[in-house]
Write a structure and sequence with these properties.
This protein is mostly helical and 434 residues long. Among the domains are: 23-166, no CATH class; 303-420, Orthogonal Bundle (Cytochrome Bc1 Complex, Chain D, domain 2), CATH 1.10.760.10. It is 39% helix and 3% strand. It has helices at 2-18, 33-41, 43-47, 86-95, 110-113, 118-130, 153-161, 175-187, 191-194, 240-249, 261-267, 274-286, 303-309, 318-324, 326-329, 347-350, 355-363, 388-400, 411-420; strands at 60-61, 68-69, 217-219, 222-224, 369-370, 373-374. The chain starts with a helix and ends in a 14-residue tail after the last helix.
């Protein structure tokens, strides 16, 4: 069994390495300060796509008005930022205003980057200008129709929702907490995904003083998780070690990174120093709960396991679970943590929104790659094997089993997500900076 497992891992590594997608170096923190800042900010996540030069843009991002595309930030003089002075770059990063004066869409998290200190901003500018190869790749125009594509209203948006205040250490907090706050609120721009947005696409909070900050939010047919201390749907049951392990590896005893979080692990957090990972965890563990009111902590219920052990598949979705899911996630829903995550009490299964579960059952998971080693196990896709009703039934079974108490979902909800998503790619998007 061990030989077969090791052979499987080896073949996986060879297959992906043959595509030139796995870095030949361990995920140590970069020695270059500017490269490290780029890792902290995960600039590659939006400004690179597989098969194109690093930082040359092209990532398609959905908005309520139409798709927009990330821009080329290589030092190319024609299509990139090669003509930007530091002052031009600083203004774009903090205020969302490009060199030619046009306003950037707030999909660019400049309200978070505004908190960066001067040294980090200078280091990032130097890295992009001197270490990143120039790539002449034209920027793609947005797909937002006229007149909604006018940029001048963004000046009003900036006036109402943005500011350029740098992060100021909070009195009464230690250095680790303040460093963590700087990384989470600023460079790491965690709120861009994990904070709900208003009708003007504004994040409803940017720091600890704002109640909705980091309570979780819908994100491109996923549900970015609640990062506050809510006991069931958030990080209330996680220890600080659970959180640091997750940020370094993409796995913990409570769950596995899915959706765009896989790219955060693959290209950003695994490269952070232990001190910075600990600082982020320290800050996140200090945040009070914000979503659950008078919630009882999750308690495992053995009834589901007993039913499955007795081969009683009368409950809707039970037979599909037994046939397709139980081998990895077990009769008690405990999985084989940390690599095969639990379904019992998993924050994603007890969360109000089912979209992450529907998406991962339909489309499978992208591969996490840590220290150059891709995961040996990943969630398969069931969009061909199972119908919308079968997926709805099994996800409902999971969300209501072992003590989970989430609401039933319908085939229509599955069909909606099926129609706007694609299977997880086998191609791993890893940035090589060496």
């Amino acid at each position: 069994m061990r030989i077969a497992k090791n052979l499987s891992i080896g073949l996986t590594v060879l297959a992906i390495s043959a595509l030139g997608l796995v870095p030949a170096f361990a995920a140590d923190p970069p020695a270059d300060r500017g490269e490290y800042v780029a890792r902290l900010g995960n600039c590659v996540a939006c400004h690179s796509v597989p098969g194109a030069p690093p930082f040359s843009g092209g990532l398609k991002m959905a908005t309520p008005l139409g798709a927009i595309y990330a821009t080329n930030i290589t030092p190319d003089l024609k299509t990139g930022i090669g003509t930007y002075t530091f002052e031009d770059f600083d203004r774009a990063m903090r205020l969302g205003v490009a060199k030619d004066g046009h306003y950037l869409y707030p999909a660019m998290p400049y309200p978070s980057y505004a908190k960066m200190n001067e040294d980090d901003m200078q280091a990032l500018y130097g890295f992009l200008m001197k270490a990143v190869p120039a790539a002449e790749v034209a920027n793609k125009p947005s797909e937002i129709p006229s007149p909604w594509n006018a940029r001048w209203p963004l000046a009003i948006w900036n006036y109402v929702f943005a500011n350029d205040e740098r992060y100021e250490p909070e009195a009464g907090r230690d250095a680790a907490w303040n460093r963590g706050a700087y990384l989470v609120e600023g460079l790491g721009h965690c709120g861009a995904c994990h904070t709900p947005r208003g009708f003007m696409f504004n994040e409803k909070g940017y720091d600890t003083d704002d109640g909705p900050f980091l309570i979780g939010a819908p994100l491109d047919n996923w549900s970015a998780s609640n990062l506050r201390q809510d006991v069931n749907t958030g990080l209330g049951r996680w220890t600080q070690d659970d959180l640091t392990t997750f940020l370094k590896t993409g796995h913990s005893r409570y769950g596995t990174a899915v959706g765009t979080m896989t790219e955060v692990i693959n290209n950003s957090t695994q490269y952070m120093t232990d001190a910075d990972i600990t600082a982020m965890a320290t800050y996140l563990k200090s945040l009070p709960g914000g979503r659950e009111k008078d919630a009882n902590p999750y308690t495992a219920d053995p009834a589901t396991a007993k039913m499955l052990q007795a081969r009683d598949y009368s409950a809707t979705g039970a037979l599909t679970y037994a046939q397709q899911c139980m081998n990895c996630h077990l009769v008690d829903g405990a999985g084989h943590a940390p690599y095969l995550p639990p379904l019992a009490g998993n924050p994603a299964t007890v969360a109000p929104s089912p979209v992450s579960l529907i998406n991962i059952v339909l489309n499978g998971s992208a591969r996490i790659v840590v220290d150059g080693m891709p995961d040996a196990y990943r969630m398969p896709q069931y969009r061909v094997l199972l119908s919308d009703q079968e997926i709805a039934d099994v996800v409902t079974f999971i969300r209501s089993g072992w003590g989970n108490t989430s609401a039933k979902i319908t085939a229509a909800e599955v069909a909606e997500i099926r129609g706007v998503t694609d299977p997880a790619s086998d191609q791993v998007h890893i940035l090589r900076m060496k």
